[in-house]
Design goal:
CATH class: Mainly Alpha
CATH superfamily: IscX-like
Structural class: mainly alpha
Radius of gyration: 11 Å
Helix content: 40-55%
Distance between the termini: 31 Å
Order of helices and strands: HHH
CATH architecture: Orthogonal Bundle
Length: 68
């Protein structure tokens, strides 16, 4: 069984977000949407309440870089 994604797996999360939401404006997004999309990833297995603004900012930055 594959390892589940955790909040700290920002680059792996960014890759999956890009695959699932390629048309999203990932620069001007709401963190509430970003949080929901991460939690909805099939491979995500961390506690939804363990995220914070710093983690979401890191995920967003990795996603922007992934698309770049």
């Amino acid at each position: 069984m594959a390892r589940k994604l955790r909040w700290t797996d920002v680059h792996d999360i960014a890759i999956e977000l890009e695959e699932r939401h390629p048309d999203v404006d990932n620069i001007n997004l709401r963190f509430t949407d970003l949080h929901r999309w991460v939690v909805e990833l099939p491979d995500f297995g961390d506690d939804p309440n363990r995220s914070n603004e710093k983690i979401l900012e890191a995920i967003q930055a990795a996603w922007i870089e992934e698309r770049g």
